Amino acid sequence: MNNDKIWLSSPHMGGTEQEYVNLAFDTNWVAPLGPNVTGFENDLSVYLGNVPVAVLSSGTAALHLALLQCGVSAGDEVICQSFTFSASANPITYLGATPVFVDSEETTWNISPIFLEEAIVDRIAKGKKPKAIVAVHLYGMPYLVDEVHAVADKYDIPIVEDSAEALGSTYKGKNCGTFGRYGVLSFNGNKIITTSGGGALVCPSEEAKQHTIFLATQARDDAPYYQHSHIGYNYRLSNISAGIGRGQMEVLDAHINLRRDMNVFYQELFKDFDGVTVFTEPNEDFHCNHWLSAIIVDPAKTNGVTREDIRLAFAKANIESRPLWKPMHMQPVFENCAFYGGKTAFRLFENGLCLPSGSNLTSEDRQRIEKVIFEVLSL
Ligand SMILES: *Cc1c(COP(=O)(O)O)cnc(C)c1O
């Protein structure tokens, strides 16, 4: 057996990406606009059910422009799921606003509607109604859409749906990315599809899409010279990157099926070991792309084997695995921010591990993973 590094999630090209990139060169559209940009936007729009989509330089840029267009500005507060990647929260601070973090619930690991309402009520009582809510479909698992949106609607607060990890996931048959006022997608190198780097914003209207593109291309007024009445950004996706995206869209569903197969592989692998739970959908309303498969380890039931023991055993075998996201309310950079909840996100971080989940893992890779698990858990 070879000993090449097995990654958590690595780029997986379908084959036609380079043809779209070559097309950009052949026609000299080597710029942040061109046929691949509009083509990729169209592919995403059709895939998600004919919604307006603007492609951008990153998911972080998409979050920034979404919050901006929800009216977030200096001195505001924005509620954000604590259990997430820092990119969900950072753009709140770009606007001079402050994040207020909310804990997760156990079934989807995403924002708890109960703690969400507690946070809203308390912030209003303290004198400031939150301007927006960033809810995340972490690891591709849809959050409790009905319950979370019912709370947001009750207080009339817009949701920015961070669907960076959830392209292709659905809730009650509807695509993740299309529930919030705005939906954010990411095509970074480790995501379910990649453009080497990139993102997109799903918009509530064609007008909002055009305004997003306007902001993302330096906010130029309609004049023969450069005139500006707004602060602009340089956030548009390049025509080269968009070419990769068009090729990736052709294999998206096939790659989701392969990632879902990896999740089934882990469920099979761990079913005979007490104390290890594989994260999967709570019921049939949820369809997860299983961007990353993850486990929770309970050392009380594994003869003391911990998450760290498993992680280190993988590392020794040149296999990448990683603890679940460290919650934002535990991050030094956000230590002064308010937090509502209990210990759910904290416990997930303490005991959870992400496992190699790529759509390009071979049966030999699976054997190497299996071998490590048998060695570390069959004590
Ligand atoms: C990757 C990611 C982002 C940011 O996307 P980029 O394209 O890397 O800027 C935001 N939120 C979550 C949950 C992510 O996983």
TrEMBL record:
Q: What are the GO MF terms of this UniProt record?
A: transaminase activity
Its domain of life? Answer: Bacteria
Alphabetical UniProt keywords: Aminotransferase, Pyridoxal phosphate, Transferase
Q: Which organism is it from?
A: Dokdonia ponticola
Asked whether the UniProt record includes Transferase among its keywords, one would answer yes
The family database entries (Pfam families) matched by this protein are listed as:
DegT_DnrJ_EryC1
Name this polypeptide is given: DegT/DnrJ/EryC1/StrS family aminotransferase
Q: Which family does it belong to?
A: Belongs to the DegT/DnrJ/EryC1 family.
